[in-house]
Design brief:
alpha/beta
Length: 186
């Protein structure tokens, strides 16, 4: 079973990029993993869930806060309505002021994904990109080069959905939809 993580802005939807990526992942019969929030996370999950007959699930890694009774509850606005399987984690969202090596839910996003696609984003997305490189997770950045204009060895960037599809094909075995059970006749 393959899980394709899509990381990107929690503010901007980047729909021109996220929508075709969500459809591509759904049509490839893989699961989608996001951070369960707004922006790219909502846009890609909406597109993924819009594919008729899709087989994969939309998984969301949900940031939480303590609920006062010793448990954790989702932060307000999480998960977005296009998450089929919300996974709550007590790990915090990435704080740009936190020291390097601080464990965050970004670790769960990256380590739970078989491959990752990064769309334009901010500090949290860049942290996830750095984690992909650190943990040697297959990663492709999808968007204009200016959005990823950092001299980072090993960072692959493309503006072509065909390149993203080729990346998925190169790193993941195709997944067939489930076989319907046979029902005995009469």
């Amino acid at each position: 079973m393959a899980i394709v993580g899509v990381m990107g802005s929690g503010v901007d939807e980047w729909a021109a990029l996220a929508t075709p990526v969500g459809v591509l992942i759904a049509n490839s019969h893989h699961d989608l993993l996001t951070g369960a929030g707004r922006g790219v996370m909502t846009s890609v999950a909406r597109a993924f869930c819009s594919v008729p007959g899709r087989w994969g699930r939309s998984i969301g890694i949900v940031p939480t806060q303590e609920d006062g009774a010793g448990g954790f509850v989702a932060l307000q606005g999480y998960p977005n309505p296009f998450v089929d399987l919300p996974i709550l984690t007590p790990l915090p969202r990435k704080d740009p002021r936190s020291p390097p090596g601080t464990l965050t839910r970004n670790h769960v996003n990256v380590l739970s994904s078989d491959v990752l696609i990064a769309l334009p984003g901010r500090a949290g997305t860049w942290d996830e990109i750095a984690l992909c490189l650190r943990f040697r997770k297959p990663l492709v950045c999808f968007g204009e080069a200016a959005a990823f204009a950092v001299d980072t060895p090993g960072l692959v960037t493309t503006t072509s959905l065909e390149d993203v599809a080729a990346f998925l094909s190169a790193h993941l075995a195709p997944r067939a939809p489930p076989i319907e059970p046979l029902h005995p006749h009469g």
